[in-house]
Write a structure and sequence with these properties.
It is built from 4 helices and no strands. It is mainly α. Helix 2 packs across helix 3. 16% of the residues are buried.
């Protein structure tokens, strides 16, 4: 099971390493908000104290669980999880 956790963590790290950040354009239009991700969903859940945002008993992070859920066909609704105001 530790191998699975390590693979998930490594996959997430490599995925995030490949993400490029683009600076906001300067001008009269406001900078668009970034698209919600597993990281933003987990950060919001953690800030609210939600149990689902804590590591699993085997040590898998929230981000790794979220990323794994997407690979098995049960993706999290990261948009809603990133903006929710309570854990229910």
């Amino acid at each position: 099971m530790k191998t699975l956790s390590l693979i998930l963590t490594l996959t997430l790290a490599l995925t995030l390493a490949g993400c490029a950040t683009t600076p906001c354009p300067t001008g009269k239009t406001p900078c668009p908000a970034s698209a919600p991700t597993c990281a933003t969903a987990c950060a919001n859940g953690a800030s609210l104290g939600c149990v689902w945002a804590t590591p699993t008993p085997l040590g898998a992070t929230c981000e790794a669980v979220c990323a794994n859920a997407a690979t098995v066909g049960v993706p999290w609704n990261v948009g809603k999880l990133s903006t929710m105001t309570g854990c229910q």
